[in-house]
Amino acid sequence: MVTFKKVGTLLSATALSVGLLAPVASASTFANERPDTLPIQVAQTNAVVTKNDLIKRFRELFPNEFTNVAEKDFHMSTGHYYSGDETLRYELSFSKKIDNRYEHGSVTFAGESLELEGFYYQPANYAEVLFPPKYSKEEAEKIANEFIKKFDQTTEYKLASDAFGYYEFYSPLLTEPVQYYFTYNVTKSGVPLADQNISVAVLGDGTVTTFHKGQAKKGDFTYDAPSKKQSESDMAKRIRNAVTAQLSYMVDTNYQTGEQNVKLVYQPNSQVTSGVHALTGEWITADGLSATLPKQQEVTPIVEQPLAPKQPGITAEQAQELAMKLLATNQKGIELKIDSIQEMENWNGKEVYYINYMYEYKHGGTGTSLMIDKATGEVIEYHDIKNQLLEVAEDEDKAPALTQQQALDKAVAYIKEWIPSYASNYALPVNVEPYFSETDSYYFTFPRIVNGLTVIGDQIHVGISETGELQALSVMAYDQLAWPVAEGILTKQEATKLLKDQLKVELQYVNIPNVENEQHYSLAYQPKFKESQFNYIDAKTGEWLYEATSKDKTTIEHPTAAEELNYLIRTGALQVDDAFNPDAAITKGEALQVLVKSVTHMYYSFYGEEEATESFTNISPDHELYPVVTRALSIGLLNAEDQTFNADAPLSREELAKWAVSLLKWNGAAQYSDIYQLNYSDASQVTKEMRGYVALASAMGLLEEENGKWKPKSDVTYAELAKMTLRLAHKMNEQNINHW
Questions:
Q1: pTM of the predicted structure, to 2 decimals
Q2: Per DSSP, what are the bridge partners of residue 191?
Q3: What does the angle CA 291 – CA 296 – CA 297 come to, to the nearest 5 degrees?
Q4: In sequence order, what are the residues at sequence separation of 6 or more whose Cβ sits closer than 8 angstroms to the Cβ of residue 68?
């Protein structure tokens, strides 16, 4: 066995896991979150793997690819393992400059045989992968299948049947690649294992950019015999009879604009979402199996009365003292050092102290950061890494593990200690999660409560070690939201009927927690609603929020611009209704929105929205076009000296030419209007200062003539703009132009 010390932690992003036994294909962004398994760097080991060993293995796996990558372009990272899994993993990465662009890649090898566990690749040139894609969804799926077979010929797997098992990624930016993502369930006897999956991403030109094989559990597992399962129809009926709709608020975030809206939604009651044991028909719960349906948890505030903030108006010096208290460690040879304290706004606009710190030791160090709310003096983002510095020993003595209730009591105590002002606005966990043996931890989600309803997407996460230490604390809180009144919505009975009508069950193998044999996979029937285990009904409209086929629907028909128009509609750059006419004139406001959202980055930093420095007198911050207009001004697409912007006026072809050339950063050349010759019969109609823009737009093929006429004063149609925008995006990619 390999012996080693833990000397550093590579922090990863939080992984989303929904409910108790979520299938691996789930893609909900609103459910319970907990920290992913952290990779731990290896300081010393009796196994020696060199960079040359990894390069040799890389060449064996990819004999005909990456031939231009030389040995000097590779970099080897320190070996690491995961808590609860002693398999050593090594990462080999490379970076290569090609024609003033860089291609990047990395590979993760696992175990003594250096099995391919992960692969990532970013090509230098995206010219062949922009919209429209060269390969269809079906063709990309075949490529993904072949890639998996090439590197894993023993694992049984199949494409996930969940609505989110496959999705086609259409970036809002036409300058970015089309990409297909596939999730495959690892199977046993044709039945998916709920906690094991393979993911693959394929670019629109057929290039595989991502491959990841999920970490499999170790041990000699046994499996229920499929022949012993009860009938699917009987189990579906059992679940259907128990389903009831639960009304909640949901925070719906637009990740392109950074805006949050609140919806009233119905979801199935939490007792049924984990399903039933396929052999016995028992309900699957966090405590194991139950012959009867568990009682629905009531929504109970953490505390009944508001608590005072921990340290209102905290200074930077006081924040440092608070951090030192939280981060203190008595581990021998480890010294805590605060590297920096920054005052900034976090992702939600809160003023925070962002504190970077490091645990230093003899041959290096490891560190991360935490956030303290400046207004309340409360720690709103923290992940413990002290325990990852301890030496591991097989026979190390551990304190008795806490029970689930004891861990929950600890979590509540930590909330009262570190974020007391939040306690009265959040509820005790409605879904009590099991103990996660791979991280020796409990994770609890405390949902926000408003008007007596839980809020999906606004919660406190707390991680508690098996011995009671605080491992994670994260506040996902939104301020200044408008909470709709529960009036004029579907009744609970109406929503329940919709859930029952769209319910199907799927057979899966599940490693059920808190059962007698932990080395066993049980067969379970798990419910799906409208093809997804985690779906929601809009309480106002009765519409399902997530549908697998929504991206495949054709919205607009047009003889020459259907593909481009439908793309713009899918990405939200173009808004249409039933009366939409593709050949009608588009307004300046609509056209500006299409261009800005399609070929520039609507910049919202992680720590808050970019502040606008200027706008027009008639476009105030509450105007719907304000973000688009201020973005256009910031990149020089519009000129603030014009004072006003007539968003409702039609856009002429020569004005569109100016916008397009400006986005290509050719303004300087276009301004020398006298040097350009326009060989069109209507050239005299081109405004003098627009001659350079028209000439360049025409020469680059962005806008075309018709029967020898350029029609500079003609109104631009939706279809014409859609086609021009696509050409512009390809030209920007060709010239390596980005508007960040």
A1: 0.76
A2: 188
A3: 125
A4: 96, 98
